[in-house]
Amino acid sequence: INISVFPPSNACIGRYILNMQITSCGHTYQRCLGDFYVLFNPWCADDPVYMDNQAHREEYVLNEHGILYEGVHKHITSRPWHFGQFEEGILDICLKILDMGASYHQGSDRDHCWRNDPVHVSMVVNHMISSHTTNSIMKIPETNDYLKGTKPFSWNGSVPILQQWYNGRCRPVRYGYCGSLASVMCTVMRCLGIPSRVVTNFRFPCSIENPLAISEIFDCTGKNLCGKDKLWRYHCWNESWMARRDLNQCCGDWQCLDPTPLETGRGSACSGPTWVRSIREGELDLDYDGHHMFSRVNSNYVGWLSQNNAKKTKFFCDAWPCGQHLITKSVGSEQFENITGAYKYELGMMKS
């Protein structure tokens, strides 16, 4: 007997068991024929992750080798990264991540109905990468003390990280940084069939009090008196391709997902998915965490002079320091592609 299975495009992803029941002469027999996996399908036009460009599918789904870009925007460095989404056992680990993160959706872990929606799947994966839960995949060191784990920049692939998490009873791997977190997420998403890529944003703002302004306070000698706000040299996050049915999108587009938990006014949180186009257009109420992602490419850099009477005087303001250079690996090439225009308009440019 030859059996063909054609799951619908809205089927929940995961592992299925195929049983056969035979009734003959009043007796019923059951036999397990095996199991199979259902994943998102970017080759299927009815799937919400459909990508119509074959070269893009080969790069963002099938390619196991990537490049991380670091440094500063005037001197960009690169290093290879092995995603390894097709390595043995990785698919089972990725499905285990969904199982462990099911409680992130209140009450939906029983029927798994959210597993046919790439938006909710991406939210669960994003939450599981490096949240403060006991089962998150990686931890970020609070200090520069790496004695209890591996130095964050020593990793060069996702497979050993995922295997260590799985074999260690789903305890967080120590330690990671934004590049490794985004790369591990890219591996999980590609493994589940969702086209994904790692993006680097140079000059990344990290402000707790005011997300749209990085403030530095100096005394009359030039000493920096404020250490809470930061302007990082670079920051990495993930982009995944999907149609946002919750936003009435009929076609796929890039969605921004940042698995690195950053401090906000409401505590530490991950961001996304956020439609990249909504960030450029400033439609902040349209999407998840739109205001957070908008501030990360549009913050002002403000310098204040603290006087003796505790009064502060603004003496410097740069309206264009953040998000000057956003890049990702080019399709079919080891060169980088500048995608800054997808996130923001050029300074002084009139919006069409």
Automatic annotation (TrEMBL):
- One annotated GO molecular function: protein-glutamine gamma-glutamyltransferase activity
Domain Transglutaminase-like stretches: 170-261
InterPro entries referenced in this protein's UniProt entry, alphabetically: Ig-like_fold, Ig_E-set, Papain-like_cys_pep_sf, Transglutaminase, Transglutaminase-like, Transglutaminase-like_sf
Extent of the signal sequence: none
* Alphabetical list of SMART domains matching this protein: TGc (SM00460)
Instruction: Please name one Pfam family that this protein belongs to.
Output: Transglut_core
Record key words, sorted: Transferase
What's the protein name? Protein-glutamine gamma-glutamyltransferase 5
